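Note to self: keep these together.
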Amino acid sequence: MASNKYYYITKKGKDGDIIFLDYKKLTGYNVTPKNTVDYDGIEVNKLVIIKQSFIEKLLKKKIKRKLDLYLQIIADMIDDDTSSDDTALRETLNELTRYKDIVRSKYEKYLDERYIRLLYQKIEALEYELSSKLTTRMMYRSLYNQIYQDQIYYEDENISRKSR
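Structure:
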């Protein structure tokens, strides 16, 4: 079995020395690559990014991709008036709330406060659209059920009476 080796890659250190790092004392953003491509070289299991500007760029790109995905899903759901199933709306609303919690717990310490406020405003706008669509559907459904029940009651009332 191969032994675990740790490498430290720097721009300045071209002398070929391997530096031992204590990862427990190293603070930064941890990335775990997916390793989907077979490669004969070094296999990376964990990557710690230390430079703050690189962390911000990476997280902003990751957040933008996820928000675009949620925006596309929500746009498809709002445009689709034919389905009367509320479970997809509820699941997406739950996923969006969970994503907001993930941002709060994992990403908030690496991003500046202004960007976080803007991000929360965007997420809350998406949540508002989903919840308003959900309440509109529920309101129309209850109105339809009430009209349908009144119609059945009216038909039953007319049938039960017999004139002489």
